[in-house]
Amino acid sequence: MKKPIALALVGCAMMAMVLTSCSSKPSDQEAKQLEDLKAEVTSLQNQISAAQSQKAALQKSIADKDAQIAQLKKDKDAVQQHLMAQ
Q: What does the CA dihedral 66, 70, 76, 82 come to, rounded to 10 degrees?
């Protein structure tokens, strides 16, 4: 979700630099800004990847807990049936 936003931000920044630049070669300041934006995009992409990994791990944990709850409920029902049969 944040990846398209970051890419749009970089795209807008690059477009602004192209439109405001009179020379064909970017100035040192513009080159530095571009490198800074690229580093920021990379950082954001890494954060997104880490968040997606964490989300997947949490979803797996939830699924495991749900399966454990279902098994415990099944065991409880079996014990109750056994007790009622006596």
A: -170
Three-state DSSP state, 1: coil
CB-CB neighbours of 40 under 10 Å: 14
State how far the Cα of 40 lies from the Cα of 45, in Å rounded to an integer. Answer: 9
Q: What does the pLDDT look like over 25-46, one tens digit per residue?
A: 889 999 999 999 999 999 999 9
**pTM (whole model) above 0.85:** no
CA angle 75, 79, 82 (to 5 degrees): 140
Query: DSSP labels for 41-56?
Result: HHHHHHHHHHHHHHHH
Residues of the chain with pLDDT under 70: 1-3, 6-7, 12, 16-23
For the chain, what are the domain ranges?
A: 2-85
Structure tokens at 52: 């997606």
